[in-house]
């Protein structure tokens, strides 16, 4: 729901100022539509129905994984594809994986989103509407900006969206923004954001040479500068930065590379998430034993580390698999030939 459009529509009709808040509260609590907002006059509900689309996104397809993960493909009003995921955990947690852009202009070699065409930045409302869609299915309590796109390339809209999430039941402490280390946005995030929103860094390699090979963005913003910002974040907030490391067989997963990562990060300020690689074509995933041996190096150096649970792989809803429609991907593949 575009709340600024809502506000101007209400203003134009001469409605009292509290109306926008009333409508927003119903929406944030999962109301199915204007019709459910029973403390609004019927005529007003009908007028809103006609003038302010209840969502800025249309649902195109939705799939549910054997493990309960739900992936939804949306379209923006101007036709751009956007995917988002609801993850359901046994302990009752309900976590949303939200997209900040349609596609992504960066070209990380292991990520399916980087292989599709980049569309555009999403507005705050297009981001909030992903979350609202799932809130209408069931209560939710966590959100990660780990869907399509690079949040630090669209920081203002991402922050505006994140600031709306507490109304849906997702506090800032349970909201995480993930970045490849896009320095201009990261610096602003560290300097300016007062809310206790969590920060995650997709690192994937402990040396610049390998990282530049698998994540071209590293040529522009090398590790040393990116890590300095992460340390500054920790110094200011005392909140650890999550470090994501996707395990690529024979590429970045040797015990020596584990030791190098431990040395680079040190025992303070970071928590490492080892991510089993979800197939997107380019690589093979590391075996469980290789992941365990890598993790042992971090353990030895007292760098906190966990292996991430893979969710939704059977419906291509897992990390790095969001690529909108197969159609889109085919088109990219065809044009690359
Ligand atoms: N652009 C931001 C936000 C997206 S997060 C970022 O990269 O941080 C998406 C996460 O999934 C990142 O940690 C990314 O590295 C990881 N990922 C990408 N492709 C993957 C794959 N094929 N298997 C597992 N994880 C992957």
Q: How would you spell out the order of helices and strands?
A: HHHEEEEHEHEHEHHHEHEHEH
In angstroms, what separates the terminal alpha carbons? 40 Å
Instruction: Tell me the CATH superfamily of the largest domain.
Output: Aldolase class I
What small molecules does the structure contain? S-adenosyl-L-homocysteine
The profile of the biggest β sheet is: 10 strands, mixed
Strand content: 15-25%
The percent of residues in helical segments reads: 25-40%
CATH topology of the largest domain: TIM Barrel
Q: How many β strands by DSSP? A: 10
Strand order of the largest sheet: 1-2-3-4-5-6-7-8-9-10
Number of domains: 2
Please tally the helical runs, counting DSSP H or I stretches of 4 or more residues.
12
Please identify the structural class as seen in this structure: alpha/beta
Mean pLDDT: 94
The stretches of 5 or more residues where confidence is low (pLDDT under 50) are: 327-337
CATH class of the largest domain equals Alpha Beta
Describe the protein:
It is built from 12 helices and 10 strands. With 337 residues, it is α/β, with parallel strands linked by helices. It folds into 2 domains: 1-54, DNA polymerase, domain 1, CATH 1.10.150; 55-336, TIM Barrel. The chain is elongated and about 70 Å long. The relative contact order is 0.12. Bound molecules: S-adenosyl-L-homocysteine.
Primary descriptors:
337 residues, alpha/beta, DNA polymerase, domain 1, TIM Barrel, 10-stranded mixed β-sheet, binds S-adenosyl-L-homocysteine
């Amino acid at each position: 729901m575009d709340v600024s459009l809502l506000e101007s529509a209400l203003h134009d009709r001469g409605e009292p100022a509290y109306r926008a808040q009333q409508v927003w509260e119903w929406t944030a609590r999962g109301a199915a539509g204007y019709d459910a907002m029973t403390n609004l006059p019927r005529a007003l509900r009908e007028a809103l129905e006609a003038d302010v689309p209840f969502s800025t996104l249309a649902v195109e397809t939705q799939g549910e994984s054997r493990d309960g993960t739900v992936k939804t493909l949306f379209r923006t009003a101007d036709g751009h594809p956007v995917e988002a995921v609801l993850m359901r955990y046994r302990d009752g947690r309900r976590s949303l994986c939200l997209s900040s852009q349609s596609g992504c202009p960066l070209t990380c070699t292991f990520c399916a989103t980087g292989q599709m065409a980049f569309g555009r930045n999403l507005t705050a409302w297009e981001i909030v509407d992903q979350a609202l869609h799932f809130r209408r299915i069931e209560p939710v309590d966590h959100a990660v900006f780990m869907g399509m796109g690079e949040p630090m390339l669209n920081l203002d809209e991402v922050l505006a969206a994140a600031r709306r999430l507490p109304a849906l039941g997702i506090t800032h402490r349970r909201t995480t923004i993930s970045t490849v280390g896009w320095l201009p946005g990261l610096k602003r995030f560290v300097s300016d954001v007062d809310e206790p929103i969590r920060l995650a860094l997709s690192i994937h390699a402990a040396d610049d040479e390998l990282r530049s090979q698998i994540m071209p963005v590293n040529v522009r913003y090398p590790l040393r500068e990116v890590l300095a910002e992460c340390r500054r974040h920790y110094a200011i907030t005392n909140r650890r930065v999550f470090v994501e490391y996707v395990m690529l067989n024979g590429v970045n997963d040797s015990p020596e590379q584990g030791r190098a990562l431990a040395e680079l990060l040190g025992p303070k300020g970071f928590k490492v998430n080892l991510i089993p690689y979800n197939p997107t074509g380019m690589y093979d995933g590391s075996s469980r034993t290789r992941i365990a041996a890598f993790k042992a190096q971090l353990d030895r150096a007292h760098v906190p580390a966990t292996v991430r649970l893979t969710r939704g792989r059977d419906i291509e809803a897992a990390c790095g698999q969001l690529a909108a429609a197969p159609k889109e991907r085919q088109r990219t593949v065809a044009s690359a030939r």
